[in-house]
Amino acid sequence: MNIRKKIEINEENCIIQYGSLSLNSKGRKKPECMDDVRTCYMVDRDRIINCKSFRRLKHKTQVYIKTSSDHYRTRLTHTLEVAQIARTIGRGIGLNEDLIEAIALGHDIGHVPFAHNGEQVLNDILPQGFRHNENSIRVLTKTEKSGAGLNLSEEVLDGILNHSGFSNKYGKAKTLEGQVVRYSDKIAYVNHDIDDSIRAKLLSEEMLPLDAVEVLGKNHGTRIDTLVKDCIYNTIDNLDKGSIGVLLSERVGGALGVLRNFMFENIYKGEILKEERQKAQFVVKNVFKYYFNNPMTMPDFYKGIVKEEGLHIGVADYISGMSDDYCLMLFNNIYVPKFVIY
């Protein structure tokens, strides 16, 4: 018996009946031989964490753009924190941690430079609109590995596509593991963005909504602990009653929603960072404009996409894959005058 089969047997003994067993995966678009050591979800996790798009997340904004401190979150550190929270919840419930980790590590891989600021620009420009969860699927299936994609399992792609938003036009993920990542993402970004905002002296603990603080806790760690445990115990209780789904309790979920709304009003879309948001959008908009008018200056891979799928899609693929620093460098090279001594 090879190592993978031993792991699959262990999964049958450890994962609850509503969880996702690796041997029951619906598979990949392109069939492959199974690995002797790793299950399909372990392979997917390794492919994601070793791809170039994942490495670029370290230079993509979470909320704060070009900070002078090393301690503010980037899109990469956010991703790792989501994975940690999701694995804790998944283990508590009795789900497949490898599937959870693969979904969590890939969930934001389609984010553009300057986070939701850049996403809004592309959504406004592109005839078909732009959403980072859909772009994550495109990156993982189309643009990674020079167009070959990573050929991930159906359950991983489903969890990534359906991770975004408190409400989602796609509905919830088909697996409980995917639903865990969706809640873990919210738990992570709301609380970690509060932590970064306090570090930046844009917020203080005293400014947070009192009703939410009374439910969740008076500091960063306590709030995450409350949310994680509530998600575990409430989901287990619901499963015991025959309600198949990952859920926070109404009281705790409501408090998280209050904090999230507070962050949107005061930080994400508030006046405090408005000027910086506008600068970032200006950069992305004008870099897009340049390559839309000069597509032959893009790398050959993206010129090929333009030929196959059209100008908007080819330029969007190029822009969305950029890190903040690379996008800024291109903007400066294109638009900022160079000093020449005659």
Q: How does the major sheet shape up?
A: none
- Uncertain segments of ≥5 residues (pLDDT<50)? none
- Total strand count, please? 0
Please, how many helices?
Answer: 16
- Which structural category do the helix and sheet elements fall into? mainly alpha
What fraction, in percent, of the residue positions are helical? 55-70%
- The helix/strand series, from N terminus to C terminus, equals HHHHHHHHHHHHHHHH
Backbone CA Rg: 21 Å
Amino-to-carboxy terminus distance: 75 Å
Please state roughly what percent of the residues sit in beta strands, choosing from under 5%, 5-15%, 15-25%, 25-35%, 35-45% or over 45%. under 5%
The general outline is globular
Describe, in plain words, how this protein is organized in 3D.
By secondary structure, the chain is mainly α. Helices cover 61% and strands 0% of the residues. The protein has 16 helices and no strands. It is globular.
